[in-house]
From TrEMBL:
Keywords: Signal. PROSITE patterns: PROKAR_LIPOPROTEIN (PS51257). This is Tle cognate immunity protein 4 C-terminal domain-containing protein. Residues 183-347 form the Tle cognate immunity protein 4 C-terminal domain. The keyword Signal applies. InterPro entries: Tli4_C.
Length: 352
């Protein structure tokens, strides 16, 4: 059933199908979400406004060839030092077929605080028989539960370049300012990556996942990354995928197209598709599923791809009902509240 739901999202919806649904029905006990005192969420070079209660989940982030994550188990500088030393000692004693041991080299990184090194780089082979590539790991300790770990790699002939890239990325990461940033760069969790856009640095980006305690099973997601050759305009992609939709999906599901248009949000010209879906022959609430996409510019990594997705009945188990817990009116209100807030952060607008 999960597959069915996702496949039907890709259906071209130029034709609306009749549906026996009660779109304003909602789960008993639901209270309207509080939109007062919303909070801003900064992600990459964009920011969004969400209700204060919103639970925000961040993926790991990819930037300048490194996958970036945070090790929250490290709570002291001494624990950070022990982690680095243990990693080095382990690699010194693990065998390699031709080079003796896995460790290639290790060095203090370029960042120091309070007259002590808070960064380190370790280069190693990833296995006994690996000979064509190196792993390049960077570590940046910025306080309790704020050990930033960067994982990259390089072929033998590009190792020196990869180490220099790692040094540059380590220098660029700092704790995000509570007052906002006055220089260009990218937000991620509690961190800020200084990047003035002059080098057109590539990044794989990541995603945000929003959940709302007042509205069970309602979710929203944001994808932020460079633009790929394979990316298509949203409406074009829907048309392309229509041919691949199983006949059973068309037979079982009724789809009402609520929106399908070009939509400019704070200067970002994208496309939006929003559908209401329900099972044929059932008098039920159904649910809304929608998407807005800004395609960005290929090869201009400072103008990346942005995708906002909304689902008013996220199905976390195969036997979950295909009905939203909230009315269509409130689903569209929440969708539009977040979607219409997407914008380039002021510090990045100035640079552009």
């Amino acid at each position: 059933m999960k597959l069915l739901k996702r496949l039907t999202l890709c259906l071209l919806t130029t034709v609306s199908f009749s549906a026996c649904s009660n779109v304003e029905k909602e789960q008993e006990g639901i209270k309207v979400i509080d939109y007062r005192n919303p909070k801003k969420v900064c992600f990459g070079r964009i920011e969004l406004t969400v209700p204060k209660e919103t639970e925000v989940e961040y993926s790991n982030f990819n930037y300048n060839g490194s996958n970036i994550e945070v090790d929250e188990s490290v709570k002291t500088y001494e624990a950070y030092q022990k982690l680095i030393n243990d990693k080095i000692e382990y690699l010194k004693h693990e065998p390699h077929e031709t080079e003796g041991v896995l460790l290639k080299q290790e060095m203090p990184g370029p960042v120091n605080q309070l007259n002590r090194s808070v960064s380190h780089i370790i280069v190693f082979r990833d296995g006994l028989y690996v000979t064509s590539a190196y792993e390049v790991y960077g570590y940046l300790y910025l306080g309790p539960k704020r050990l930033v770990v960067l994982k990259s790699g390089a072929s033998n002939d590009l190792l020196n370049e990869a180490i220099e890239d790692m040094k540059q990325t380590l220098r660029s990461i700092k704790i995000k300012s509570a007052k906002g940033e006055d220089q260009a760069g990218l937000c991620w969790k509690d961190f800020f990556i200084v990047d003035d856009m002059s080098k057109n640095i590539p990044f794989g980006g990541g995603y945000l996942h929003f959940k709302f305690p007042s509205y069970p099973q309602v979710r929203a997601d944001v994808v932020y990354r460079v633009t790929y050759d394979s990316d298509l305009h949203l409406i074009e992609m829907m048309k392309k995928n229509q041919k691949e939709l199983p006949a059973i999906a068309k037979a079982l599901m009724s789809i009402e197209n609520l929106r399908e248009h070009k939509k400019i949000i704070n200067g970002l010209g994208g496309e939006e598709v929003l559908n209401h879906m329900s099972r044929r022959g059932y008098f039920e609430r159904g649910y809304e599923v929608g998407e807005w996409q800004y395609l960005g510019t290929l090869d201009n990594h400072n103008d990346p791809y942005i995708q906002f997705s909304f689902d008013s009945a996220d199905m976390v188990r195969p036997d979950d009902p295909l009905n939203s817990t909230i009315s269509q009116k409130e689903a569209l209100r929440l969708n539009d509240f977040i979607l219409n807030s997407i914008r380039i952060t002021p510090n990045n607008e100035k640079e552009k």
